[in-house]
Design brief:
This protein is mostly helical. About 75% of the residues lie in helices and about 0% in strands. The radius of gyration is 28 Å and the shape is globular.
């Protein structure tokens, strides 16, 4: 079967599944139903915070092992609040990163190096040149999470450096996304107040920070890089061009004198 028919079949299957899901959701789901379920979930979190935190932490860690699952930190901030969600997301992402790193290093290293030869070589060269600052920069700039984990595992970086740069580098962007989630209103507030419930100073500030995050993080990385650069000690040593000119002897001067 050629690529054309396969694409048509895949498109028909996708469309059929989409229509089926939409019809089921239209028949069985309503805003009132979602509001009721959210209220139950929040009541459970408030009544049993530690078990709820543990379950959320485990789910977040497992989901973070797979690519294409962005937006989780906003949901965590919405359900658990800023500080609890910040702690949960940072630790869960770090553990998920260690898991991906370990799988790549001890199980898939040869396969990763074979399929991403150029990228792994770039990572190795950057680590040789900039050390841990390179990986810290990658984490702060929010480069695709799973890809960084597997490329790092196939490179020569050690686990200790990978762990602390991941934990520290993820904090700024995580704080911004969690802040957006914690500023979102509940479904009940949206149902009662409409879209006006979305207008509040904390949410507006978090959204502005999320929009400015790429530029702010790049500026922060440049500042850190500038402060950590040290002049090469060899630059203080005299070079051949800096050494004083050789002084001619009197006999050589007389030989050049007409």
């Amino acid at each position: 079967m050629t690529a054309g028919p396969r694409r048509w079949i895949a498109g028909v299957i996708f469309l059929t599944v989409g229509i089926t899901v939409w019809l089921l959701a239209r028949e069985h789901l309503s805003l009132e139903f979602l509001v009721e379920q959210e209220a139950r979930l929040r009541a459970t979190i408030e009544r049993r915070p530690w078990p709820a935190f543990g379950i959320g932490f485990c789910i977040y860690t497992l989901i973070s092992m797979f690519p294409g699952t962005s937006g989780k930190s906003i949901i965590c901030g919405w359900l658990f609040g800023f500080w609890a969600a910040l702690a949960m997301v940072t630790v869960a992402l770090t553990l998920a990163a260690i898991g991906g790193f370990t799988i790549s290093r001890y199980v898939l290293r040869n396969a990763v190096r074979r399929h991403f030869t150029d990228r792994v070589r770039e990572v190795d060269n950057a680590l040789d040149h900039d050390g841990s600052f390179y990986l810290l920069t990658v984490r702060m700039l929010h480069i695709p999470f799973t890809l960084v984990n597997y490329l790092s595992g196939a490179s020569g970086i050690d686990l200790r450096t990978f762990t602390w740069t991941t934990a520290v580098g993820l904090v700024p962007s995580t704080a911004i996304f969690v802040g957006v989630g914690s500023g979102l209103p509940t479904l009940r507030e949206l149902l009662d107040n409409g879209t006006s419930g979305l207008i509040n100073p904390s949410l507006m500030a978090a959204l502005v920070l999320m929009g400015l995050a790429p530029w702010l993080l790049r500026w922060l990385v440049r500042q850190i890089g500038t402060s950590t650069k040290r002049p090469d000690s060899r630059s203080d040593l005299p070079t051949q061009s800096d050494s004083p000119a050789q002084i001619d002897s009197p006999a050589q001067i007389e030989e050049r004198t007409p």
